[in-house]
Amino acid sequence: MSETVEFASVRAAEMKAGFYKLLERLRAQSKIVLLDEEGLEAFVMAGGDGMVLFTQEPDQQPETWDVAVILPEVLKLTGDRLRAAVISPELARREQARFGITRWPSLVFVRDGGYVGAIDGMRNWEEYTREIAAMLDKPVSRAPSVGIPVTAAGEPSACH
Question: Which of 21, 23, 55, 131 is deepest in the core (most CB within 10 A)?
């Protein structure tokens, strides 16, 4: 293995370990929760407004660090109205299609078991405040995921 490849591999592992320490600190110091697959489903289905940070590996998408760091400030901005959670890059990739995620990192907003919207990538603070306020006012809608309409056998099709 070349020195460059070896260094990149070590650096990626260090960044990943540091990022998970950051997430653990966020969990310990705020109301932000770290979710597994079952926890994500329960979080989405819970009542009220929620926001989930869909992360990516920090060595591949450094903006993930930036968005994670501002989550406590987002919670302060919204008072007690917003619940916040973070999911791992692995879970985020598995749930990507369900929530229509096309860019990392993404903040996905949910309410009362439904999808509200997403803010993808890093923004400046003014954009975040404006977009988050809009998310809190938006109605629940269908996630922009890939979908194929399904009908029961023998039912007429809506298409002609």
Answer: 55
Contact 79, 46 (CB under 8 A): no
Rg (CA), the chain: 18
Token code pair at residue 76 = 């302060």
Q: Which residues pair with 34 in a beta bridge?
A: 86
Phi, psi of 2 (to 5 degrees): -70, 160
Q: Which domain holds residue 86?
A: 28-137
Residue 143 within a domain: no
What CATH number is given to the structural domain containing 122? 3.40.30.10
pTM, to two decimals: 0.83
Tell me the helices (H) and strands (E) count for the chain, helix number first.
5, 5
Strand partners, 141: 115
Mean pLDDT taken over the chain: 88
- Is residue 86 domain-resident? yes
pLDDT tens, 74-105?
Answer: 999 999 899 999 999 999 999 999 999 999 99
Quote the CA–CA distance of 28 and 57 in Å, as a whole number. Answer: 21
H or E element: which one contains 119? strand 114-120
Q: Hey, what are 25's tokens? A: 């600190």
Per-residue pLDDT, averaged over 21-44, amounts to 92
